[in-house]
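Request: Not sure, any thoughts?
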Amino acid sequence: MAAQMTRPAALSSVSRGRLVVCAATAVPKQFKAVKPVGDRVLVKVDKEEAKSVGGVLLPASVRNKPTAGAVIALGDAKAVKLSDKVIYSKFAGTELEVAGEEHVLLKEDDVIGVLPSTDKVAQLKPLGDRILIKGAKAEDKTAGGVLLATDSGEKPTFGTVIAVGEGREDEESKTVIKPNVEVGSTVMYSKYSGTEFEEDGEQYIVVRESDILAQLA
């Protein structure tokens, strides 16, 4: 898919100076199917991109790990269905190798959203209480008019709401509580929250409603 997913700065695979490598659990060959239990879903992971945009072969250590795939089995999950193309949290779930193919077993709440057939993040359907935001452009000048280097511009933490999930289920009443944010509104969100994407030169982020700090008018 065209969109690039960036790794949150607060998360790291380095522990006490050592790189932690999480290998997928191989399902024994005599088992041909995996049936998720509870609200879990089984996703067949998209293939990794082995080449850069210029066609240069990338070593495995620098390839972007896919965080998208197709739902091939599910338990009692309600928000997704078989064959849905989904995006999920990068460090969520249990990685499985089934018949030589990479899969991930996820809780439904770890699924960020469902992609349309176009694979465009701008048309993503966020799940639960998540909200899809198109990021505002970074300022390229200081208040005094000094031109800033590209990497020194202050990263905006506000943008326009593109899509809103159907809401989260209240544990006691079992009713769905819809996010109190409307499509088209401009919002400010917590600086290190959410999952970021870049597509066609635009920045997008999916955050939970609890990460929205304020609406701007």
Q: What stands out?
A: The radius of gyration is 19 Å. The domain at 1-118 is CATH 2.30.33.40 (10 Kd Chaperonin, Protein Cpn10; Chain O). Residues 6-21 have pLDDT under 50 and may be disordered. The chain has no helices and 19 strands.
